[in-house]
Design goal:
Structural class: alpha+beta
Oligomer: single chain
Number of helices: 7
Low-confidence stretches: 143-149
């Protein structure tokens, strides 16, 4: 990886071109260009972006197509080797963990057998004691007197009377519910203001709300994104002319952005009035 980056850096320095100039022309952030030259590809967004950045960087330095193919092929070969090394490392770690789990399972199985045997013996002992106690109590079980039967009959009559009262009450409530149907209230749907960002060219921008990052990346040409807009949202970009923004159907002029060094910042205020 470092060999590729060193080769590109030497070519750039031979042509006396600064990273800032390449960032302005290719729309590639300076930190990504520095990462390519230092061979630190891990901080780049992904393989698709890496290949695109390498190809555009090489073309800008007037490197011939054959050399570009060799550079891309070298990068892919290194990536494949790294992936194979990572897979082998994972396989070794998995085998080691599997062996440890197998040993632990055998140890737990042996211990479980002893616990199961001890529990079975205790269960038998408790069962014998419970059965003896049941037989002892069955011999002394008292015979119910006639008074107990009278009390039982009275409780049965009281229960029947209570059931009749409950049935009448339920029928009354059912009749009332049939006489007074419930009319649902009107449902009010609130319209939520929406922010649409449309790219006229490949453009990087960032969207914040209360210092919380909602989006940061490159919006490709003719691509659009939708966001639920909130009060005090801030859009930052280096090329406001490449972006067209709408709050609902109203276009927002980003040329009125506040300039901070090389960055243009637009603050969305009074959302209800704009929408």
């Amino acid at each position: 990886m470092k060999d590729i980056g060193l080769f590109l850096k030497e070519k750039r320095e031979e042509k006396d071109i600064s990273l800032e100039e390449i960032e302005e022309i290719l729309k590639i952030r300076k930190k990504y260009l520095t990462a390519i030259e230092e061979g630190n590809f891990n901080i780049l967004p992904g393989e698709t972006y890496i290949l695109g950045y390498l190809r555009n960087y090489c073309k800008y330095l007037n490197i011939n197509d054959e050399k570009i193919k060799d550079i891309i092929k070298t990068y892919k070969g290194i990536e494949k080797q790294q992936e194979e090394i990572a897979v082998k490392r994972e396989e070794k770690l998995s085998l080691r963990n599997k062996s440890a789990r197998t040993f632990k399972r055998k140890s737990n199985l042996t211990n479980f057998r002893y616990v199961y045997l001890a529990g079975f013996v205790i269960f038998l002992f408790v069962g014998v004691l419970f059965f003896n106690n049941y037989l002892r109590n069955a011999k002394n079980y008292p015979i119910p007197s006639p008074e107990v039967n009278d009390i039982t009959n009275n409780e049965t009559e009281t229960s029947n009377a209570t059931d009749i009262i409950l049935e009448e009450t339920a029928e009354g409530m059912l009749g009332e519910s049939e006489m007074e149907p419930v009319i649902p209230k009107e449902i009010i749907v609130e319209k939520i203001p929406t922010l649409k960002v449309l790219a006229q060219d490949n453009t990087w921008f960032k969207l914040l709300h209360d210092d919380k990052l909602l989006f940061e990346g490159i919006l490709l040409k003719d691509e659009e994104l939708l966001f639920r807009i909130r009060e005090d949202m801030k859009l930052s970009t280096m090329f406001p002319k490449n972006l067209t923004t709408f709050v609902d159907d109203k276009e927002i002029d980003l040329n009125e952005s506040t300039r901070n060094n090389q960055m243009f910042e637009y603050l969305f205020e009074n959302i209800e009035e704009n929408s």
